[in-house]
TrEMBL record:
Protein name: Imidazolonepropionase
Region Disordered: start-end pairs: 96-119
Signal sequence annotation: none
Cross-referenced Gene3D superfamilies: Metal-dependent hydrolases (3.20.20.140)
Length: 350
């Protein structure tokens, strides 16, 4: 097996065309790469683009502002959630960093006041047509009217109240009825479990509060839930938390779970572009180099890569790590961190 085969079906050995800046330079061509968790109202993406990120998914912004940013010509291509949906007084409604207009606080749909004890999916579906679900439907419709591709929910029990299960299920059914997936920030004890139980499609951070048991992880993977990695912020902030998150990702991946590369770009200091710390942590979590490439190139939240494509490709110059070094987190990270965006027409098979 050649080194390029070991990189999986998305990688191709190429040479740059003979005109241009680096005529004849050889390297690896990959699809356009996506950071699936960014905040463009908190950080400009120019340096991320220079570092090989062609497309981003904004997961929390003022819906009008992010719609305007997404319409701007040029890279990165942008998909977005619009506002954070949360409980009344819930995270991040009181955070100093939250952009103005970026939070929608939802009252409970649990009108019988049983705290959700008797909730089930069927009742949630009934509620979707009930007056109590009005604010939930209005919030989902608002994000959709601004062009959102995904609905973002915050479930952070460390930082405030969280949506009860009936209300979360009402959000999920309202979003699904409109063809939109739901992505949740789950933080605090049993918040990842709440999101998994309620049918949330994506966790915007690999679970980091606690070790999830194998049965729960298997259930998430079998349900087709995807996890956006965001491991670099934990490596930066707290080794113990990073270890929990990496262990959860390792077992999720082993169970067949879909991992999406994402950094939470805009959350403090993070190297822009393909982030070497994020890549190295994914390799440490058991992802093969081909899996890391798949996590970077996944077109979520769209089903196809049509939105990231538009005649561009990723070029990683030089030889990829050889077969032995492909298991070395730092070697894979150093190689992928040199990724650049080029017009696809400048690359030819070699
Ligand atoms: Zn975020």
């Amino acid at each position: 097996m050649s080194a390029t085969d070991a990189l999986g079906p998305l990688a191709r050995r190429v040479r740059r065309s003979l005109n241009g800046d680096h005529p004849g330079e050889t390297g690896t061509m990959l699809p356009p790469l996506v950071d699936h968790h960014v905040h463009l109202q908190l950080a400009t993406a120019d340096d991320a683009v220079a570092g090989g990120i062609a497309a981003v998914v904004d997961l929390g912004a003022d819906p009008g502002a992010i719609a305007g940013i997404a319409r701007t010509e040029g890279l990165p291509h942008v998909r977005y959630a619009g506002a954070f949906l949360t409980a009344i007084g819930g995270y991040p409604s009181d955070r100093p960093w939250r952009p103005g207009g970026s939070v929608r606080e939802l009252p409970s749909v649990d009108g019988d006041g049983d705290g959700g004890a008797r909730a089930d999916a069927e009742r949630a579906r009934e509620r979707a047509h009930h007056a109590l679900a009005g604010p939930v439907e209005a919030a989902v419709d608002e994000q959709r009217s601004f062009g959102a591709s995904v609905i973002k929910v915050a479930l952070n029990s460390v930082a405030g109240p969280v949506l009860d299960r009936p209300t979360l299920e009402a959000v999920v059914s309202a979003a699904h009825a409109r063809g939109l997936p739901v992505a949740a920030h789950a933080e605090g004890e049993r918040m990842a479990q709440l999101a998994i139980d309620a049918g949330v499609d994506v966790l915007v951070h690999a679970p980091f509060t606690e070790r999830l048991d194998d049965a729960l992880i298997s259930r998430a993977a079998a349900a087709g839930q995807a996890w956006i990695s965001t491991l670099a912020i934990h490596v930066r902030d707290d080794d113990a938390v990073a270890a929990i998150a990496i262990d959860n990702v390792r077992r999720f991946r082993a169970a067949g779970g879909r991992v999406l590369y994402g950094t939470d770009f805009g959350n403090g200091e993070l190297a822009p572009g393909v982030n070497a710390v994020e890549v190295a942590a994914l390799v440490r979590a058991g992802l093969a180099a081909s899996d890391v490439i798949a996590a970077l190139a996944d077109p979520w939240p769209d089903a196809t890569g049509a939105w990231t494509d538009a005649g561009i490709a990723t070029f990683v110059p030089g030889a990829p790590p050889d077969a032995e070094r492909l298991a070395d987190p730092d070697a894979v990270a150093a190689w992928l961190a040199t990724a650049r965006i080029l017009p696809a027409e400048e690359l030819e098979p070699s």
